Amino acid sequence: MVRQQEKQLGKSGTLFILAAALLWGTTGTAQGLAPAGVNPVALGALRVLIGGCALLSIALFRRSFRGGSSWPILPTAVSALFIAAYQLSFFAAVSMTGVAVGTMVAIGSSPVAAGLLGYFVRGERLGYKWITATLLAVVGCTLLVSGGSLLADPKGIVLALGAGCSYAAYTVSIKGLLDKKSPDAVIAVVFCVAALLMSPLLLIFDTGWVLTVRGAAVALHLGLFATAGSYWLFVRGLRTVKIGTAATLSLGEPLTASLLGVVVLGERLVVWQTGGILLLFSGIAILAAGSGGGRE
After folding, report:
1. What is the torsional sign of CA 173, 167, 169, 286?
2. Residue 38: what are its φ and ψ, rounded to 5°?
């Protein structure tokens, strides 16, 4: 009976993370619909600010801060720092390498980094199923977003690797916070701190575009759905799914983004990108079908 309940929790966690990845996958399409001249760094800071406020509202409404021990300040600060670092290093990498290579390196490296961190920090085992699924997903992601070229600025590659490692690091640190606090409270506090860290960027870059109808719609979508909604789902899945598995399942993001690019923006896929979708989907399917690990 207990084993059955643990298996069900694992499958529920997988669905939560896949749903989060689906929402993350709308980010690129939303940015493509943003007004001309929008600075991506300012947009990233704004989405974290809106997302943090929305998550805090949810936590307060659900009374998630009631009772419990004192708040772990250092792990919270570390988690927020890695979230901010991911945003900044990713956008800087993309500006140097281009969207395709920057995304490929950042997102492709994150499941490997997360799996290793989960193993060394939390003692999570990396089974053959995870290795096979991650290999398929990373190769698929590479084919999907490479555009046929892997040549790029070495500094941009380093920044993209930094983004991937930052993603893995904040997944590990948030997982540790979930051992002690409720998901609503954890993600609300972490994102509010990250928003404070990134808020000075809103004073540096022009944000007048947010007062337009299109600009406001894009900012609200990114903040409420692609940030608040996605991370609200992600932390619930992370409670019952291993760190490495969660990061690999998150590769549903470029899969969703590519399909939306075809359907909404009219983009076309070449042969190797179609093969990349199949490999990426296969890797995710292996983990989704075999998920059932219990609460860790």
Report:
1. positive
2. -70, 130
Neighbours of 147 (CB within 10 A): 15
Q: From CA 110, how far away is CA 56, in angstroms rounded?
A: 27
As a whole number of angstroms, the distance between CA 17 and CA 29 comes to 20
Residues 6+ apart with CB under 8 A from 183: 232, 235, 236, 239
Q: Is 140 inside a domain boundary?
A: yes
Residue 139 lies in a domain: yes
pTM assigned to the model: 0.84
How confident is the model over 192-240, as pLDDT tens digits?
999 999 999 999 988 999 999 999 999 999 999 999 999 999 999 998 8
Structurally, the chain folds into a number of domains equal to 1
Question: Does residue 1 sit within a domain?
Answer: no
Which tens digits make up the pLDDT trace of 96-137?
766 666 666 777 788 888 888 988 888 888 788 888 888 888
Distance CA 48, CA 61 (A): 20
Helix ranges (DSSP H) in 62-153: 73-97, 99-122, 128-146
Q: Is residue 199 part of a domain?
A: yes
Distance CA 245, CA 227 (A): 20
Q: List all residues 6 or more positions away from 69 whose beta carbon is below 8 Å from its beta carbon.
A: 180
Helix (H, G, I), strand (E, B) or coil at 153: coil
Q: What is the domain extent for residue 278?
A: 14-290
Buried b (16+ CB within 10 A) or exposed e, 90-110: bbbbbebbbebbbbbbbbbbb
